[in-house]
């Protein structure tokens, strides 16, 4: 019997990513409003982003398509990513 294919790549929230790491967005765990707002900023499924700053108490700063974006930790927590290869 064939076993289901395993995905060895670990998914995590954007707030778990260390600075100077590149990741790829795999999902957004939010409603239509949040997904639309993120899409307007270029943050869509499949987009690669680099985490520039991720302090424990402050906002998350990322680079996407040559632009820097800053977002609150609540919003960043809803963005699901995987390490870029």
Task: Provide an overview of this structure.
The protein is of the alpha+beta class. The chain has one domain (12-83): SH3 type barrels. Helices cover 16% and strands 38% of the residues. It is built from two helices and six strands. It has helices at residues 32-40, 73-77, and strands at 12-13, 21-28, 48-54, 60-64, 67-71, 79-83. It has a six-stranded antiparallel sheet. A hairpin with a 2-residue loop joins strand 4 and strand 5. It is globular and about 30 Å long.
Q: Please give the domain count.
A: 1
User: Structural class of the helices, strands and pairings?
Assistant: alpha+beta
Catalogue the unreliable spans. 1-6
Write the CATH homologous superfamily. Answer: Ferrous iron transport protein A (FeoA)
CATH architecture: Roll
Placed side by side, the strands forming the largest sheet appear as: 1-6-2-3-4-5
CATH topology (level 3) name: SH3 type barrels
CATH class: Mainly Beta
What does the radius of gyration come to? 13 Å
Helix content: 10-25%
Mean pLDDT: 90
Brief summary of the model shown:
This protein is 16% helix and 38% strand. The protein is an alpha+beta fold and 85 residues long.
Write the layout of secondary structure elements.
Elements: E1 12-13, E2 21-28, H1 32-40, E3 48-54, E4 60-64, E5 67-71, H2 73-77, E6 79-83
Antiparallel strand pairs: 1-6, 2-3, 2-6, 3-4, 4-5
Key words describing this protein structure:
alpha+beta; single chain; 16% helix; six-stranded antiparallel sheet; SH3 type barrels; 85 residues
């Amino acid at each position: 019997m064939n076993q289901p294919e395993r995905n060895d790549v670990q998914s995590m929230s954007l707030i778990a990513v260390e600075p100077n790491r590149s990741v790829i967005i795999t999902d957004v765990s939010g409603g239509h409003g949040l997904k639309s707002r993120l899409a307007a900023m270029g943050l869509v499924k499949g987009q690669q982003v680099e985490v520039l700053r991720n302090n424990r108490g402050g906002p998350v700063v990322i680079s996407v398509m040559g632009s820097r974006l800053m977002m609150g930790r609540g919003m960043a927590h809803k963005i699901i990513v995987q390490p870029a290869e």
